[in-house]
Amino acid sequence: MTNDAFAGNRDNFCYRHPDRQSFVLCQRCLRTICPECQTQAAVGVVCPECMAEQRKSQTPAQKKAQRRWRSGTPVVAVSGGRPTVTYTIIAICAAVYVLSLGLPAIQGWLGFSAGYLYPQLTGAFEPWRLLTGTLVHSSLWHVGLNMLALWMLGRGLEPLLGHMRFLALYLIGALGGSVAVALLAPNSFVVGASGAIFGLFGALVVIGRHIGAEITGILIILAINFAIGFLPGMTISWQAHLGGLVAGAVAGLIFARTRRPQQRRLQIGMLSGWSVVLLLLLLVPPVLYG
Questions:
Q1: Structural domain boundaries enclosing 262
Q2: Cα–Cα distance between 181 and 160 in angstroms, integer?
Q3: Are residues 165 and 207 in the same domain?
Q4: Domain count, the chain
Q5: Quick one: which of 208, 198, 282, 286 has its CA closest to 238?
Q6: Do 45 and 88 have their domain in common?
Q7: Rounded to whole angstroms, how far apart are CA atoms 262 and 193?
Q8: In whole angstroms, what is the distance from residue 197 CA to residue 143 CA?
Q9: Taking Cα atoms as reference points, which of 159, 236, 268 lies closest to residue 204?
Q10: Based on the domain organization, do 261 and 172 belong to the same domain?
Q11: CA distance 130 to 223
């Protein structure tokens, strides 16, 4: 190709600045754009017109999230890395289930029932069951489905929140599930990590809403899983699901609202305060059922 032929080909120059040579194309309209006209997109770069069109089609939530990201203040702290806490919880639950096959009494030792919290009513006080109930499961399907859900949620949430925040969220969801069982079904005996997993669901919905993510699919899956607990013949504790969901949603809101590094102490204080509120709710069942 001769120099004259090269210069005569307008595709070799920015469409907005004809004197500027470039070989970079807009990923949407495929027009040539110079560095000044390039805006970084999720994949490649786009031209100013395509970027303006893309912004017009954004939802209000996406526009709100866009303003937050431009301000340099992330919604949550992104840590990256492997979801080691998720894998560790899965390994522990799997190990406890295998042990319970040879020693079924493990379920009785670790499962949760409100009676173990009120020695004045039952003569027993074993508060650790508020959390240890998440470690035991009643069947292979039970542990398999719960751990699959944990794996799917944890792979995205743990790198987004960080290991310690994710662990705190999981435990708050577990606590919320147990508290709801004590309030709404005090005579039931429950096992399984469903409350904690619904806590992850609740936080994911709230955080997703704050970053402008498309959460319709999450809401559909959440609704289906929650509705299963009401099907005839199902022995699933919808109370634990509800408690975990609410507890996790509040924790997710705290994460989203205390996202700046200088708010770390405030975040820890609010999470601790929310945990205390959940524990104080355990004072209600003796009044209602005592």
A1: 84-289
A2: 30
A3: yes
A4: 2
A5: 198
A6: no
A7: 33
A8: 12
A9: 159
A10: yes
A11: 25
Encode pLDDT of 33-88 as tens digits: 888 888 877 557 889 888 888 777 766 655 665 555 444 445 555 555 689 999 99
Q: Give one word for 203, left, alpha or beta, with left for phi > 0 and alpha for psi -120 to 50.
A: alpha
Residue that the structure tokens 């997109």 belong to: 41
Residues β-bridged to residue 40: 45
The predicted-structure confidence for 242-275, as pLDDT tens digits, reads as follows 999 999 999 999 999 998 888 899 999 999 999 9
CA separation for the pair 53, 17 (Å, rounded)? 20
* Contact yes or no for 182/114 (Cβ under 8 A): yes
89, 171 Cβ separation under 8 angstroms? no
**CATH number of the domain within which 217 lies:** 1.20.1540.10
Q: Return phi, psi of residue 32, to 5°.
A: -75, 135
Overall residue count recorded for the chain in this entry: 290
- The Cα–Cα gap between 182 and 287 comes to 12
Give the separation between CA 18 and CA 49, rounded to whole angstroms.
16
Residue 88 falls within a domain, yes or no? yes
Task: Look at the alpha carbons of 229, 141, 153, 221 in this order and tell me if their dihedral is positive or negative.
Answer: negative
Answer for the pair 24, 31: CB distance below 8 angstroms, yes or no. Answer: no
pLDDT band at 216 (very low <50, low <70, confident <90, very high): confident
Which residues lie across from 39 on neighbouring strands? 46
Active site residues: 194, 241
Report d(CA 162, CA 160) in Å as an integer: 6
